[in-house]
Design brief:
Layout lengths: L3 H6 L5 E3 L8 H9 L4 E4 L5 H14 L4 E6 L5 H10 L4 E5 L7 H6 L3 E6 L2 H9 L5 E4 L5 E2 L5 H11 L4 E4 L5 H9 L4 E4 L1 H4 L8 H8 L6 E4 L7 E4 L2 H11 L4 H8 L2 H6 L24 H16 L7
Parallel strand pairs: 1-9, 2-3, 3-4, 4-5, 5-6, 6-8, 8-9
Antiparallel strand pairs: 7-11, 10-11
Helix pairs in contact: 2-3, 3-4, 8-14
The protein binds ligand TUI.
């Protein structure tokens, strides 16, 4: 499955694990990289010291390339941006913002930069300031999302930029990967299915909630505040959406979600916490190792499109 993305990153398969807050730590990232994909450590809102330790631990577990995802709304984004440049991290992805001010520093440090974007405008802007590729993430994804679906977003971004496009949002099996190639993507990023792997350190309650999810179980909170977030429905999303419908303000709403992801991922409180997951949660039915999952994805994709000229 050689594509521009595997060559750019020096990996075997063009499959990237999403940089999920609280979920994407070094055990998961190194297991994905060892299985031939690209593992990511999600810096989320953690301080730079935590990120540096995670990088050190990942280096002990894998000789293969791995990356760090920087969540740009983090109060620590500036210091994390510097750490990744200093620690020789091979790849940086970014989310929830515009990473323009760090691009020069990262390029000078030889880091491959792959911003996650949810619009054509940001994709073009990222290409202009030196991005090596972009992840086009549709609103089927879990967590913080944009407006467009993957089906609509990916081809529009493919037409607008020359750098390789990696599709994300709504992909959990070989059919999704093959479809992404048909839309012009050269690789995929997946999150939700990697939450439910053996190496994922996430609380069993969270994994089982994903495995038990139906197709219509996700909800988007925060549309009224301008920070839409997709998570599996529970007491928290119900209350949040009720309050939004009653016209509640940002501060009242924020009280409901503050620390909610940690509550769900670490404590296993899937009732009141934020169980972020994509619309494909309903397709995730088994816990596999990262290697079993990636081997299965490659087998399924090959069966659909091998020889069709997508791998070059
Ligand atoms: O970033 C994500 N997904 C995330 S971040 C996150 S942590 C969080 N937790 C609670 C509330 C908010 C965040 C959980 N999931 N995906 C990448 C992504 N980036 N999706 C959408 C965007 C995006 C949206 C607007 C990127 C840029 C943007 O505008 C930037 C600009 O200045 O134009």
């Amino acid at each position: 499955m050689q594509t521009e993305v595997t060559r750019l990153l020096g990996i075997e398969y063009p499959i990237i694990q999403g940089g999920m807050a609280w979920v994407a730590e070094y055990h998961l990232a190194s297991a994905v990289s060892n299985a031939g994909g690209l593992g990511l450590i999600g810096a989320a809102s953690a301080p730079a010291g935590w990120v540096r330790e995670q990088i050190m631990e990942a280096k002990k577990l894998t000789d293969r390339p791995f990356g760090v995802n920087i969540m740009l709304m983090s109060p620590y984004a500036d210091e994390v941006a510097e750490i990744v440049a200093r620690e020789g991290v091979k790849v940086v992805t970014t989310g929830a913002g515009n990473p323009e001010k760090y691009m020069k520093m990262w390029k000078e440090a030889g880091v491959k930069v792959i911003p996650v974007v949810a619009s054509v405008a940001l994709a073009k802007r990222m290409e202009r300031c030196g991005a090596d590729a972009v992840v086009a993430e549709g609103c089927e994804a879990g967590g913080h999302i944009g407006e467009n679906t993957t089906m609509a977003l990916v081809p529009q971004i493919v037409d607008a930029v020359k750098v390789p496009v990696i599709a994300a949002g709504g992909i959990a099996d070989g059919r999704g990967i093959a479809a992404a190639f048909m839309l012009g993507a050269k690789g995929v990023q997946m999150g939700t299915h990697f939450v439910v792997t053996e190496e994922s350190q996430v609380h069993e309650n969270y994994k089982n909630r994903i495995i038990g999810a139906k197709d219509i179980d996700s909800r988007v909170t925060g549309r009224t505040t301008g920070h839409p977030v997709r998570a599996l429905r529970n007491e928290m999303t119900k209350k949040y959406i009720e309050l939004e419908n009653e016209g509640a303000g940002f501060e009242e709403l924020e009280k409901l979600t503050l620390g909610g992801l940690r509550k769900a991922v670490v404590e296993g409180d899937i009732k009141n916490g934020s169980v972020m997951a994509g619309q494909i949660a309903g397709m995730v039915k088994e816990k596999l190792t990262c290697k079993e999952l990636i081997d299965k994805l490659v087998r399924e994709t090959d069966a659909l499109i091998k020889g069709a000229g997508f791998y070059v």
